[in-house]
Amino acid sequence: MEDNTKLPLTADASLYNGQPTDTGSSCPSARLTSCTPSILNNKGGVSVENAMTNLVLKFSHIMGILKHKDLPKWLDEIIYTDFGAIFEPHPQDVVYNPDQPYEFVRIYLGTYFPRSYAEAFCIVNNLFENEKFLSSIYALEEVNILDFCCGTGGEIIGLIDVLQSKLPNLRRINIDAFDANPDAILFLYHLIEAVVESGNVRVNININPQGLYVSSEQELSDLVNLTNVQYHFIVSFKALNEFIQHGTFKDKNVYSLISSYFLPLLSDVGVLILSDVATKLNNSGLFYPQILNAGINSFINSCNNEFKTLFPYPCYFYEMTCNGCYMQDIFTISHSRKKNDVSKVAYRILCRKKFADVIVTSDVNQFCRKNNPLADKKLPYNH
To answer: Residue 151: which of 307, 290, 33 has the closest Cα?
Structure first.
């Protein structure tokens, strides 16, 4: 499989509204470079970071877009009290190691799990704001989920939480979860047990966590061949950048590659959510959102009209001609260890073209840097 993705020669995000340094700093995790905000100077006694966060929350409230989530108290108690999770971000440490020790996974659980929970909850909740999407899956009684590079499963719990709040007939959720870190997989298995036993999940959960290390395209193909169902949700949150850092797939664009392998596994009403950090690739003038957009656009152009972007809506209209612009969304999560913890990501939601054509209408937001190079980086995510 040959990837002919061409990236723009002048792709420095600093040319646009917002400097690269506001994309967040790198952090460690069981699988990722995270989105801890960079430290900004105070002005007049008010943190610039807090001021920015407050503006985002105010704007999202006006627009009806969910950008903030409080970690449910019952979940907060499970991870911090029962599992001994530790909130301790280390923005200076970016080295990934699937053999990170048990103690490190506790730090990951307390620091990055809540962010992934909030991101998944908000992203999918906002997708449900599209009445055509909601009506298309509203009657489902059973949902299948696949999580590639699941870590301790923050996005899985966030997805479960929003699905049970939106789908009244939902009775069962089946989850295939893959990650290279055995301790993270073990945490996830017992965490799901604790969540179910807490009585706060009204649906039956059937989870199949598997520890698999993917170091080549052949191993990725082998993983895909392990699946035997059609999925309603396939997700990968803030993990694919690690394959780029380590050159796992050599010169191939990882986002294009992952799209090509996982999109065929979707049901007719299924979606693939690829979310990643908004930071800059080491020793490069490119940022991960640019690489993500360029890769996905390249695949969409080569898939013979079989698949399409569902969200952000501007990508649906311009992905056939866009070379890959920079964009960013901001979410905040509050829990017992931190108030308004900030996470900055870029993501695309993909599906079968026939489904996207039904969901996306001409009256949605179509503004982005493809048609206005000076547009704000958050504009594509504002419905």
So the answer is: 33
Determine the longest span between alpha carbons in the chain, in angstroms.
58
| Residues 6 or more apart in contact with residue 299 via CB below 8 angstroms | 255, 256, 259, 260, 307
DSSP letter string, 273-319: EEEEE-SBPTTSS-BHHHHHHHHHHHHHHHTTTSEEEEESHHHHHHT
Residues 6+ apart with CB under 8 A from 376: 17, 18
Residue 32 scores a pLDDT above 50 = no
Tokens of 58: 């105010």
Percent of the chain clearing pLDDT 70 (strictly above): 80
Sequence-separated (6 or more) residues with CB below 8 Å from residue 323: 6, 7, 8, 294, 297
Contact 146, 234 (CB under 8 A): yes
Please state whether the predicted TM-score (pTM) of the whole model is above 0.90: no
What is the rounded CA–CA span in Å between residue 57 and residue 62? 9
* Residues 252, 210: Cα–Cα separation, whole Å: 25
Element (H, E) at 68: strand 68-70
Condensed to tens digits (0 to 9), the pLDDT of residues 235-249 reads: 999 999 999 999 999
